């Protein structure tokens, strides 16, 4: 596919993302998020693609040492999901230095949103993301909303 279409860059947004699931089944997260990304990087390099945008996460920071956070904050992920994203970020830095890759890492903080007409956005059951769960609790569609951490 890469050789046929010759894209100028890879925009990598595919990953397993559920933190709770990563604690229950960390191996699947390492296989998908780390090995899958390394496989994609190898294929991209073989096809001569040297620009890479990676969808990471604020979970790479772990527990905040200070607020607000910025990109210089120490990264100490506390769950397998965050660790897989952190490992890939480190691999990208090595590819940048040793393989002439140009990568950009995006670290999201509860990114949310959708089109008002429902054409784009997330929809999954059971819901596990913070913003939809909080909205459902506020509307009385669920009993309470748990926040983990401080």
Structure notes:
Helix 4 links the parallel strand 2 and strand 3 (102-106). The protein has helices spanning 2-5, 19-24, 26-46, 80-98, 130-138, and strands spanning 10-12, 51-55, 102-106. It has five helices and three strands; from the N terminus they run H-E-H-H-E-H-E-H. The N and C termini lie far apart (45 Å). The chain folds into two domains: 2-109, Rossmann fold (3-Layer(aba) Sandwich); 119-150, no CATH class. Helix 3 (26-46) runs parallel beside helix 4 (80-98). With 150 residues, it is mainly alpha-helical. The chain is globular and about 55 Å long. The protein has a three-stranded parallel β-sheet with strand order 1-2-3, with helices on one face.
Gyration radius (Cα, Å) is: 17 Å
Estimate the mean pLDDT confidence: 89
CATH topology of the largest domain: Rossmann fold
Strand fraction band?
A: 5-15%
Number of strands: 3
Mind describing the biggest β-sheet? 3 strands, parallel
Q: Number of helical runs?
A: 5
What distance lies between the first and last C-alpha atoms, to the nearest angstrom?
45 Å
Global morphology? globular
CATH class of the largest domain equals Alpha Beta
The ordered string of helix (H) and strand (E) elements is HEHHEHEH
Oligomerization: single chain
The CATH architecture classification of the largest domain is 3-Layer(aba) Sandwich
Number of domains: 2
The CATH superfamily of the largest domain appears as NAD(P)-binding Rossmann-like Domain
What are the segments in which pLDDT stays under 50 over at least 5 consecutive residues?
none
The helix content, as a percent range, equals: 25-40%
Pathway: Carbohydrate metabolism; galactose metabolism
Protein name: UDP-glucose 4-epimerase
Organism: Rhizobium leguminosarum bv. trifolii
Pfam families: Epimerase
